[in-house]
């Protein structure tokens, strides 16, 4: 399902395009073109990305996305699985340092917990 959403704040236009991490990596590296990017006239090469927001499934990041994320100055990572978050952070902290970390108990009386981490690229 494709959802089109545009928003303008302070004369800056924001476009939201739903893509999996695998799709974003393929589009960003030029492996594959995506119709939804063309429909919205979005050329990823024309953007100066400095932050990546990631909310992977319980399995955590795939190797390709983990490597791509290291290119960004700031990483915002939301996780629902402490084990895969730990695995991913072991790799990400080689190039970035943890600036903020928060736990969210959104599911009271269950063993599930959400984590939020902000990482900044090391100098």
Describe the protein's architecture and organization.
There is one protein chain. The chain is α+β, with helices and mostly antiparallel strands and 123 residues long. It has 2 domains: 1-47, no CATH class; 48-123, Vaccinia Virus protein VP39 (Rossmann fold). Helices cover 26% and strands 30% of the residues. It is built from 4 helices and 6 strands, in the order ββααβαβαββ. The chain has a 4-stranded mixed β-sheet, covered by helices on one side. Strands 1-2 form a two-stranded antiparallel ribbon. Helix 3 (63-69) links the parallel strand 3 (51-54) and strand 4 (74-79).
Q: In short, what is this structure?
A:
With 123 residues, the protein is α+β, with helices and mostly antiparallel strands. The chain has 2 domains: 1-47, no CATH class; 48-123, Rossmann fold (3-Layer(aba) Sandwich), CATH 3.40.50.150.
Q: Span between N and C termini?
A: 40 Å
Q: What would the principal axes of the Cα set say about the shape? A: globular
Query: How are helices and strands ordered from N to C?
Result: EEHHEHEHEE
Number of DSSP strand runs = 6
Features:
123 residues; 30% strand
Helices, strands, pairings?
Elements: E1 5-9, E2 12-16, H1 21-29, H2 35-39, E3 51-54, H3 63-69, E4 74-79, H4 82-92, E5 96-104, E6 114-121
Parallel strand pairs: 3-4
Antiparallel strand pairs: 1-2, 4-6, 5-6
């Amino acid at each position: 399902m494709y959802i089109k959403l545009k928003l303008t704040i302070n004369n800056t236009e924001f476009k939201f395009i739903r893509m999996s991490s695998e799709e974003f990596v393929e589009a960003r590296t030029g492996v594959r073109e995506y119709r939804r990017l063309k429909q919205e006239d979005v050329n990823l090469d024309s953007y100066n990305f400095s932050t990546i927001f990631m909310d992977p499934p319980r399995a955590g990041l795939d190797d390709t996305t983990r490597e791509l994320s290291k290119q960004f100055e700031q990483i915002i990572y939301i996780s629902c699985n402490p084990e895969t978050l730990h695995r991913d952070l072991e790799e990400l902290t080689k190039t970035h340092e943890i600036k903020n970390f928060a736990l969210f108990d959104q599911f009271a009386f269950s063993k599930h917990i959400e984590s939020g981490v902000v990482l900044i690229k090391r100098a």
